[in-house]
Amino acid sequence: LHTLAANTVDVTTAVFSPDGKYLVTSGVGLFLLSSISNPTRLWEVSTGQELRAFNFGPSNVYSDTSSIVAFSPDGYKVLVKGSTYDDANLFDVKTGRQICDFLGHNAYVTSVAFSPDGKYALTGSEDRTARLWDVRTCQQIRVFTDNVSLVIAVAFSPDGKYVLTGHGDNKARLWDTASGEELREFQGHTNWLNSVAFSPDGRYVLTGSADGTARLWDTDYHDTIKFACSLVWRDLTTTERQLYSVTDNAPTCPKP
Predict the structure, then answer these.
(1) DSSP letter at 65?
(2) Do residues 221 and 247 make contact, with C-beta atoms less than 8 angstroms apart?
(3) What dihedral do alpha carbons 207, 217, 120, 149 form, nearest 10°?
(4) Does 153 score more than 90 pLDDT?
(5) Is the model's pTM score more than 0.85?
(6) How far, in whole angstroms, is CA 253 from its chain's centroid?
(7) pLDDT digit string (tens) for 8-30?
(8) What residues does 130 pair with on adjacent strands?
(9) C-beta neighbour count of 190 within 10 angstroms
């Protein structure tokens, strides 16, 4: 239908707006006179016409990428990893104007996401944190971290109550959005996680890893316990409790 000449070395991300009318492409920018050539661009799907390039200004990172992109649920805003290694920028889609520059990470920003209601933004970073931001005030609200491993991927649950992070230590972690409390670890992969997602109903978590597998999990470990108990019909051992992230000491399976 269309060929979009994005004027980048590599186009690494293409994201549709929620209504499907627009498309954002992004990737590695070309360096001209010490500034990147606007690697993030907005296109009209029906015509293939470029509507605008988002201006990040000069970059101080060689081969800087802005390939991490998310549309707000209403389609009016775009959240993009910024031109410096440790920030994320929020843009108005219609005008191209920068609304927020989310500063607070102290290492490379790896992932971005919007809450389902569009009020909050989430960023993950190699500084071992995920950070929650208020889109209206541009202020940081909360930090999710256990200070263990870099955050590679982030996602919100469909109801916005939970945050999911994928890490370099081969685990995913589930957090309470309101309190920042870690609720559960998903462990079983043998290499770092590249991606995380919730099912539309929020019951399941999907994780993708550099170990060559994608794995499906129950979001609530109590559902996992029911499944495990249907197989063994006994109380779980200490090792099994750790495997399934059972955080309480209550009896799990009925005794024979």
Answers:
(1) B
(2) yes
(3) -50
(4) yes
(5) no
(6) 35
(7) 567 778 899 999 999 998 876 55
(8) 124, 144
(9) 10
